[in-house]
Amino acid sequence: MTATADDEIRGTTHGTAPTPLSVLDLVTVGAGRTATDALRTSVAIAKLAESRNFHRYWVAEHHSMPGVASTSPAVILAHLAAHTTRIRLGSGGVMLPNHAPLVIAEQFGTLEAMAPGRVDLGLGRAPGTDGATAAALRRTERLNEGADDFPEQLAELTRFLDDDFPDGHRYRRIHAVPGPIQATSPGGVQSPHRPPIWLLGSSGFSARLAGVLGLPFAFAHHFSAQNTVPALDLYRESFQPSAVLDEPYALIGVSAIATEDEKEARRQVMAAALNMIHLRTGRPGLVPTPEEAEAYAFSPMEREFVDSWNANVIHGTPDEVRSGLDDLHKRTGADELMITGNAHSGDVRLRSYELIADAYGLPTL
């Protein structure tokens, strides 16, 4: 890792925001829309985020979900790199047990060559899907093996990125390209950048590991809110300074939707909640419209789930969303807030980020 690693991790606060603001994209596909529509929306949001000084734009890996088109983060990030020039781009995250570490090192080395100095490699240990799909991805039925071996996989990936396997190691003569090996070839020039590794989590395992290794940590508050403060406390307590970071740096993912009218925001989050009900009950599909959600007969158990889920979605007018984000920052002390706006319509998602930027007075480039 280079001497500038810390600078490539920590963001800059703009406007009246309490901390740097970033974007997490699931590339959601609404009913009546196509994956092409969703990807066009991602480009539009990335351009807006860059122009309004959001710090980074991450894409999450999910599989076998019709309403989520982010199965291949590296491919999507390459597309976004071609449409942006400054904003940091990364995975939020790549699910390490689903892939060979060498493949990830090659993919993100390629991305770094496309967008030097602005690529993040966020890693998770969950499958990002159901067990059967994970088995198909990994070509094994031993699904616990990947999660249990996560620290070893992480160490292997790191060595491929740094090209520093010790003499005698079976991978000593294998090199991730693009990568440092090119600098040792005749006429080679070493890139000053290497994608910084982030660990992602929704419990304490990755929080502790990130702390022990001195890596930045991203916590999935948007679907594990009850564990946010304990995980962040564990990360900070476990943190050991490293060549990457002198002090802890933690961001949290947070669901937020802003609209001009509070009632409209409620309609949007109800549709997203119905989508989660379908997913949790084994019926994944496209994100339903607000009209579908209004017509849906929620059972008492489903209504309880919706109320619990939406309690952790910050939604309403721009002022209400700003207040909710400010309160969340105060409660958690997060170093960065990464906003994911899940809604049926790409236009609604795009407008939401614009309204949040306006609420905080983020400058326009």
3D structure, described in words:
The protein is of the alpha/beta class and 365 residues long. It has 14 helices and nine strands. The protein has helices at 5-9, 35-51, 73-81, 101-114, 131-138, 143-148, 150-162, 204-213, 228-238, 262-280, 290-295, 300-310, 318-332, 346-359; strands at residues 21-25, 56-59, 88-95, 119-124, 197-201, 217-219, 250-258, 313-316, 336-340. An eight-stranded parallel β-barrel has the order 1-2-3-4-5-6-7-9, surrounded by eight helices. Helix 9 links the parallel strand 6 (217-219) and strand 7. The radius of gyration is 20 Å and the shape is globular. The relative contact order is 0.16.
Keywords, separated by commas or semicolons:
single chain, 365 residues, alpha/beta, 43% helix
Can you describe this structure in just a few lines?
By secondary structure, the chain is α/β, with parallel strands linked by helices.
